[in-house]
């Protein structure tokens, strides 16, 4: 195992957006394809259920009901049905929202934080610079950055446990292209690495379920084909990236990890293939 303590892993999704594939994959089709808004439920033996992102929720449509925020849903059409939200899926599985003690946020794009307000007792774990990159933005700049402030609760800062420069780290001794990782719970079970480029301060997460190792790589790529076939996104996609150089660096890191660790399950947040292969279909 790449981590010290196994956790149960349920790979799920809440809604999806629609884009021409060519924007996310060089040589892809110009036809619009669906990109699921993935999130992951982790069941920790001591800390209970933990969420990695949330996908969309009905609140996304409330926050984008009027201009200028409504431009978001017109530029990036979103499909979401009642009963698909993380809070509804978890409640159906017998997990009330109050049981979620921790929520790891990979970054602050709306399709990753859409359901944050549904979990009133969760503490939020994220890389400090990810929030710093968006929290002071005006309305238009926030919209261009894919950030809708109203998706966060009013007490977000008080419930935050941001990862900072001096947060605990653990060396990664497996030949991975990262020297160390942030040990989010201090027990080696959730190991976060910075994978900026798509968004400032974006993190990926190494977890293990005892039988398989996973890298939840958020939006480092939009599909498994990208790193498997070495197909970067269309140059136009760089317009929404926080840093093109960092994006290329972490894309290449992901390629290296895939080649050197073929059994590692790399899970991009919006990959239909990963969801079909390893998604549980429901909470386990």
TrEMBL record:
Source species, domain of life: Bacteria
Cofactor: Zn(2+)
Entry keyword annotation includes Ubl conjugation: no
Key words, A-Z: Hydrolase, Metal-binding, Zinc
InterPro entries linked to this entry: MBL_superfamily_lactonases, Metallo-B-lactamas, RibonucZ/Hydroxyglut_hydro
Domain Metallo-beta-lactamase: 36-270
Reaction it catalyzes: 3',5'-cyclic CMP + H2O = CMP + H(+); 3',5'-cyclic UMP + H2O = UMP + H(+)
Protein's job: Counteracts the endogenous Pycsar antiviral defense system. Phosphodiesterase that enables metal-dependent hydrolysis of host cyclic nucleotide Pycsar defense signals such as cCMP and cUMP.
Family note: Belongs to the metallo-beta-lactamase superfamily.
Protein name: MBL fold metallo-hydrolase
Species assigned in the record: Paenibacillus helianthi
């Amino acid at each position: 195992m790449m981590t010290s303590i196994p956790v149960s892993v349920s790979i799920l999704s809440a809604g999806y957006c629609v884009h021409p594939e060519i924007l996310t994959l060089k040589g892809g089709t110009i036809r619009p394809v669906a990109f699921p808004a993935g999130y992951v439920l982790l069941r920790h033996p001591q800390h209970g259920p933990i969420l990695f992102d949330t996908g969309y929720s009905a609140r996304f449509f409330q926050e984008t009901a009027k201009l200028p925020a409504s431009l978001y849903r017109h530029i990036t059409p979103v499909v979401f049905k009642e009963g698909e939200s993380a809070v509804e899926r978890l409640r159906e599985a017998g997990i009330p929202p109050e049981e979620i003690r921790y929520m790891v946020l990979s970054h602050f794009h709306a399709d990753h934080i859409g359901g944050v307000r549904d979990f009133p007792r969760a503490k939020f774990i994220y890389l400090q610079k990810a929030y710093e990159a968006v929290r002071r933005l005006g309305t238009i700049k926030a919209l261009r950055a894919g950030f809708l402030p109203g998706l966060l609760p009013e007490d977000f800062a008080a419930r935050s446990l941001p990862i900072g420069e001096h947060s605990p780290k653990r060396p990664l001794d497996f030949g991975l292209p990262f020297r160390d990782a942030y040990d989010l719970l201090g027990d080696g079970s959730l190991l976060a690495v910075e994978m900026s480029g798509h968004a400032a301060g974006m993190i990926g997460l190494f977890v293990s379920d005892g039988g398989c190792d996973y890298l939840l790589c958020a939006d480092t790529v939009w599909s498994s084909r990208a790193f498997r076939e070495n197909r970067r996104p269309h140059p136009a996609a760089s317009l929404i990236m926080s840093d093109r150089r960092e994006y290329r660096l972490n894309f290449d890191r992901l390629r290296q990890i895939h080649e050197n660790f073929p059994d590692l399950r790399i899970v991009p947040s919006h990959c239909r293939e990963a969801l079909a292969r390893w998604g549980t279909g429901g909470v386990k």
